[in-house]
Amino acid sequence: MAGNSTGSGSGVLQQQQQQGLQPSFMRRKTNKREIALMYCAKLAERGDFNVNEPGFKEDMIRHFETLPTRYALDVNLDSLDVLSHQRLLNEARADQTSVSYAVRPVEILVQRSSQAGGVDGPMAMSPQVRLSGS
């Protein structure tokens, strides 16, 4: 699942930049294992996941290792998208004759802003998608 589900740029690199940190690839290359462990730490902060369950962190690291690096770097650490993606891939691998999918509500926000045409002028619509439950 894309890490940037709201279009707000909330991937690992974006979060580091917002915190005033130099992107890690400029200091040294952040690897997928580190990102997986950062994601597990965020899940532990939530308090509703037992990341200390035997095999949980190892499975998450293995999942991140299968992702393209650019995707792994753009993961939204505050979202549950990674868990959904991991579950879907595991289901698809378990039974290759079935279809795996996930359905969840999506809220579409439309932000209207006036352009130079004034109050009665044309309106610019800027849709944003927010996935509920992330």
List the SSEs and their pairings.
Blueprint: H1 12-18, H2 24-27, H3 32-46, H4 56-66, H5 69-73, H6 81-94, E1 106-114, E2 123-131
Antiparallel strand pairs: 1-2
Helix pairs in contact: 3-4
Can you describe this structure?
There is one protein chain. The chain starts with 11 loop residues before the first helix and ends with a strand. A two-stranded antiparallel sheet has the order 1-2. It folds into 2 domains: 91 residues, no CATH class; 31 residues, no CATH class. Helix 3 packs across helix 4. It contains 6 helices and 2 strands.
Helix content: 40-55%
Q: Spans with pLDDT under 50 lasting ≥5 residues?
A: 1-9
Give me the side-by-side strand order of the main sheet.
1-2
What's the helix-strand series?
Answer: HHHHHHEE
**CA(first)-CA(last) distance:** 11 Å
Tally the beta strands: 2
Shape: globular
- Helical element count? 6
Task: Specify the biggest β-sheet.
Answer: 2 strands, antiparallel
User: What is the overall pLDDT average?
Assistant: 75
Strand content: 5-15%
Structural classification: alpha+beta
Keywords:
single chain; 6 helices; two-stranded antiparallel ribbon; 2 domains; 134 residues; alpha+beta
In short:
The chain has six helices and two strands, in the order ααααααββ. By secondary structure, the protein is α+β, with helices and mostly antiparallel strands. It has a two-stranded antiparallel ribbon with strand order 1-2.
